[in-house]
Design goal:
0% of the residues lie in helices and 42% in strands. By secondary structure, the chain is mostly beta strands.
Length: 106
């Protein structure tokens, strides 16, 4: 990640946190939309009542690309860390990405 918005070079090992506080899906990406994540932590999303994707829920066509990031400590009925639903949905995990300590309850 970058230390600030004005930084021109990346700071090795720096990851920005996107936290769900156990309330809902941290990032929901709907049909036709895409998203690229670089050097972030997606954590503490969802709860036992959430249907899918405590951390990231990609629904329908489009691609989510995740680079050098951590998806951790998320909970949902299906796909605790990452849920992929609907036709044409894709999530691509690239080098340096770790998905750990997530819980799918079904």
């Amino acid at each position: 990640g970058y230390a600030s918005c004005s930084a021109s070079t990346q700071t090795p090992g720096l990851r920005h946190r996107i936290e769900g506080n156990g309330a809902s899906t941290v990032l929901f990406v709907d049909a036709g939309d895409g998203l690229t994540l670089r050097s972030v932590e997606v954590l503490n999303g969802g709860n036992s009542n959430l249907l899918a994707g405590g951390g990231i829920w990609k629904n329908g066509s489009g691609v989510v690309s995740i680079h050098d990031s951590v998806i951790r400590n998320n909970v949902a009925q299906l796909g605790g860390g990452i849920a992929v639903t609907g036709n044409g949905a894709m999530v691509l995990l690239y080098k340096g990405t770790v998905v750990r300590n997530n819980q799918a309850l079904k």
